[in-house]
Amino acid sequence: MLSSTLEHYLLVIYVSKLNQEEITCRDIAKKLNQPIKQVMQAVQRLHYQKYIDYSTYQPIEINDNGIRFANYLITRDRIVEQFLIILDITENMQMEKETICQYLSQDTLMKMEQFVLFAISNPQFVREYKLFLQANKESILLKYLS
């Protein structure tokens, strides 16, 4: 697995490929407001791990392995985001999503996907859950922290 930072770099490269744009380390550094040296190290790691094809002074090319993994990352993010929406998580959603994504196992992600699909295909389930939330605003578990 990649660190969240490397995942972010890979997604920038992938989006550039989708937009049919050539991208270099300098371009990534500008887009992410990062030092060029840091970007070059990250790109070299992505190359070493066989997600991209990179050589100095040439545009970065994402390979099939990188494309597959980028699609996985996008799908994982969508599943987690839908899960948080179903749970009615609105505060700090982006931070929550990023944190959850970093620690999910494949098995948990698959079960989360099934839950999201179930909830989407059963809107009455989501409505009942939101009614339950309104009626039960107090936490049983968290009261022990007070």
UniProtKB/TrEMBL annotation:
Domain of life: Bacteria
Lineage: Bacteria, Bacillati, Bacillota, Clostridia, Lachnospirales
Protein name (Swiss-Prot/TrEMBL): Uncharacterized protein
